[in-house]
Amino acid sequence: MTIKIGIMGYGNLGKGVECAIKQNPDMELYGVFTRREPDTVKTLTGVNVYHSDDILNHKDKLDVVIICGGSATDLPVQTPALAENFNVIDSFDTHAKIPEHFNNVDDAAKKGGNIAMISVGWDPGMFSLNRLYGDCILPEGKDYTFWGKGVSQGHSDAIRRIDGVKDARQYTIPVDEALEKVRNGEICELSTREKHIRECFVVVEDGADRQRIEQEIKTMPNYFADYDTTVNFISEEELKRDHSGIPHGGFVIRSGVTGLNKEHKHIVEYSLKLDSNPEFTASVIVAYARAAYKMSKDGLSGCKTVFDVAPAYLSAKSPEELRKTML
Amino acid sequence: MTIKIGIMGYGNLGKGVECAIKQNPDMELYGVFTRREPDTVKTLTGVNVYHSDDILNHKDKLDVVIICGGSATDLPVQTPALAENFNVIDSFDTHAKIPEHFNNVDDAAKKGGNIAMISVGWDPGMFSLNRLYGDCILPEGKDYTFWGKGVSQGHSDAIRRIDGVKDARQYTIPVDEALEKVRNGEICELSTREKHIRECFVVVEDGADRQRIEQEIKTMPNYFADYDTTVNFISEEELKRDHSGIPHGGFVIRSGVTGLNKEHKHIVEYSLKLDSNPEFTASVIVAYARAAYKMSKDGLSGCKTVFDVAPAYLSAKSPEELRKTML
Fold it and tell me: What is the ipTM of this complex?
């Protein structure tokens, strides 16, 4: 008896899920669902492709649907719609809109008696868990989240929209001095500029005004204006050769004090160094898909986040085996 | 409405719990229970002290009893006995005997309709959680646990039992080269000797044979023979001045691969740097005491470990607030 998974949406994340399922013998990929013409989509593993409009016809075949759409416009519609008919899981990552998304999804999931797990991945996701554990264990303290070194898709896109830019890749990089400060237990307020720098690799059209482009990048509000930003102009070949990966990572550090007079310092650090952001995110999602399935089997329903999932639900191993081998 | 806590056993861990409760406004320390004559025990905060034999007389006053005894002889008896009458929590850390302890405690807790949380702290505890999350998220990988730099009570005690030794302090220290290997994603088998070194500070009696003592330490089976061990003879004053703290810490590192051809590496690292081992352990326990209380209020019962506790149970904050501020 394997857990039958459907993938809704077949971009980088969907492909990552497809690969991750292969690494979990208790799971089976039933098929990919796409808004594109199914015939035009070739999957990595050769699994069947169906049109997203037909998914209800496969209702009895699917234990969990992993929704791999974007947070801006796809997930706010897809997750509530599918949660009425399937156990679902998404990686909704617009932090400010999570409460609203939760409520919409919760209603639908309860109506259908399904589990709908939202905002799963590493941030939100594993980083959120570490912020929560840190806050509960060291209540008198502070947490610091640093991202990178890694590619920010949103910032790369913002550069690409500038006139004269052919392609671009942006890396978010934590500032070493800030990391060291926090690791040494200094409780401090760090400005945006003190925490991260932004490094851009830009390919421009022939004859484009590099000075203007660099200026436009560095002064772009929200994206770059508040950071120390470096801009490197490179050739299309160099971009392809040196910057085609999608690495990422980061740090959640909790610094806190204990003792009758708060005389003892403690540092809890969680860090990720990822060769492939979408594949790691997919791997987290697949583990939580197992949890969604098991929680549903236990008669639970409604919207859940990583905060609501007892860790044992993530594992294919029995509670006895977990206690014996991992506790 | 605060959560009323009782502490059973008043050593370093009990004192740590006493301090930690002060940092959690939703909790209140009702009293300390001891096998000693209560009049002879002076608490850090002045809280009431009762004899452990009288604890049943306080049954209605206590929401959770935190059992701060030792794993060798105290907890195997105390935790099952108390679980019949109270929600309890312990830090049972004899890894090999956890399954047996679980079964004994589970029967008692179910009989009493209580929650009994066992093996809470950082190892077992937070380190176990990180081993589990790592195993579920990156199933094709390997985890590595390193301890230290920190004081090992058991190893310090072993040295003290040697003839001619007045006092001793032993530090467990991870080997940097091994840590770096693992952090670089090399999947490797590391021997005991390759992972940790042991550093001993020893105070001897006047005229004691230092060479014999050093030899006895370095060749002691299980404790030191499998490690590179250094022995430093120091004065009683130096031991007191430089080695009176109880720091500890360590690392859980998961290294794994993803991708269609397993071409992408990922490193997940969790680390602790603790000024006070017992106070940090106590802080973890107090957070899980809250979870025990909340799970009991939800009608749950039986023996639980950190694997069975949804993270939101640890927090005094509402699920809405957690989603809004920490996800």
Answer: 0.96
